[in-house]
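== Protein entry: sequence and backbone fold ==
=== Local backbone shapes as whole numbers ===
==== Amino acids and backbone structure tokens ====
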Amino acid sequence: MIHFSIDQWRAWAPGIDSPPDWQRWCRSPWAPPVDDSQPDVSFLPALQRRRLSRLARMVFSVAWPLAEEQAAMPLVFVSRHGETPRTLALLGDLAHHEALSPTQFSLSVHNAIIGLWSILRGDTSEMTALAGEGDGLEHGLLEASLLLEAGAPAVLLVIAEDLPPALYAPWIDDVPFPYALALRLTAGRDWQLTLGQASGVAAAAEWPHALGLLRTLTLEQDRLHHQWKNRSWTWQHNR
């Protein structure tokens, strides 16, 4: 069991950005139209924005406001699928015997986003990129809790998934639309996370688990259960 506090959150999905937007979504969830819309990262200079993929822009858009006017803090980034559009483009170049772009290759690796974050914010705090499974959010929280226990006053936890290319549709079915959620975590006992042994097979969730947590926060619910394979996680709000 681990204890922590959620100091603040920010989230983004196409057409769902502000807290009132998310309150409406959490009361009655819907799948936003899948299009090429991208979050606003106008706080970055244009030359720096050009290098960012949509996934990177999503991470920056939700994490930057939580870091603004705050002391430097560690960041834990979680994504199950990462930069699949960049990776597929590189594989296409290989298949056509074309030269690979060193820039595109360097930005396709799983820890590229946290590297860009460190550079653009001038933050040399400890940063981790995780490629989790269906309970990557919980593993990211475990990593963040260890950083808090080691003395970090706050930790940013960001989970984000971009819509994969259509070619991956037979294998990636857990991203109905692009989304990103950032949590600023602090030491405390407002929340606790426990791990138990799952019994039986869990029903498929209608919405991504990270957004299920967001509904729990927004609707001020006290408990959230999440099962993945033989692991059963319980989030409990201690009021």
The two ends are 17 Å apart (CA to CA).
